[in-house]
Amino acid sequence: MSTEKLSTGNLSTGNLSTGNLPSQNAPARVIDGRAIADAALSDLSVRTRQFRDETGHVPCLAAVIVGADPASKAYVRMKANRSVAVGMTSRTVELPVSTTTEELVDVLRALSEDPVVDGILLQHPVPVHIDERVAFDAISADKDVDGVTSASFAAMALNGGGFESCTPSGILRLLDATGVELAGKHAVVVGRSPILGLPMGMLLLRRDATVTYCHSRTVDLAAHVGTADVVIAAVGVPELIKGAWIKPGAVVIDAGYNEGNVGDVEYVAALPHAGAITPVPGGVGPMTVAVLLEQTLAAAVRAAAVRA
């Protein structure tokens, strides 16, 4: 979920015409993130097993969590379970809320140097007294499978082959599942956090979309959203994006997750307007985890090649 706050049915790809936005006259199709992610994880399980058989190495994802936030702990536990389900190993490092930036950096650097660990995840958010950017950048770029380091962002923005930010990358996969050709389309990203909104716009630009960022200083948010062929809601404000704002036929991706299983978009009110829309939960979240684990395997493959 983005940290920035603003003030103001199943998808069948065969029913959407490739290269065009969904029909403006059809009811919104629900983009089933769970089904798309399950297919990706099934394929990943096969590839992980092949890698283990060929190298004798079991890919390992290490997750670091600072503090005892119940939601964060549950999220890390879910990622660990998914890791094991696809044939990987998982390591969880739990640190007290009193942990300093320097102590956290030491832990992340030690994991970066551990040959058993292939990918590192620092669970967001960290306590406010920790310099999150310093902590993120202590992760080796080779193991930054969540795509949060400055090096990964630069490589992603410049198409340099680094690991992509998981949620934005997962969102692209969901957009691909709608059959929409992004080139030339107007995408409005609501939110500019460095791990969600900002990299989302970069990935859309790489697909030749015309991108508008909206944020806490944006004037007349409704007008901007109303011009969008694709809306990405990523602010963490419950139902900030009103259904009536949605342009008929637009694709709506809701990356927000708020208390009570509520997203950043007025879901029910948006259904009559949108061409396709993600639910909350069951939309963006499953694809985020799928991308995280895919990139963990990719890191393990790269490391094996270096060792060889």
TrEMBL record:
UniProt-annotated stretches for the region Disordered: 1-25
Residues making up the signal peptide according to the UniProt record: none
Residue positions binding NADP(+): 191-193
EC assignment: 1.5.1.5, 3.5.4.9
Domain Tetrahydrofolate dehydrogenase/cyclohydrolase catalytic: 31-146
Keywords of this entry: Amino-acid biosynthesis, Histidine biosynthesis, Hydrolase, Methionine biosynthesis, Multifunctional enzyme, NADP, One-carbon metabolism, Oxidoreductase, Purine biosynthesis
Subunit structure: Homodimer.
Family from the record: Belongs to the tetrahydrofolate dehydrogenase/cyclohydrolase family.
HAMAP family with a match to the protein in the record: THF_DHG_CYH
UniProt name for this protein: Bifunctional protein FolD
Gene for this chain: folD
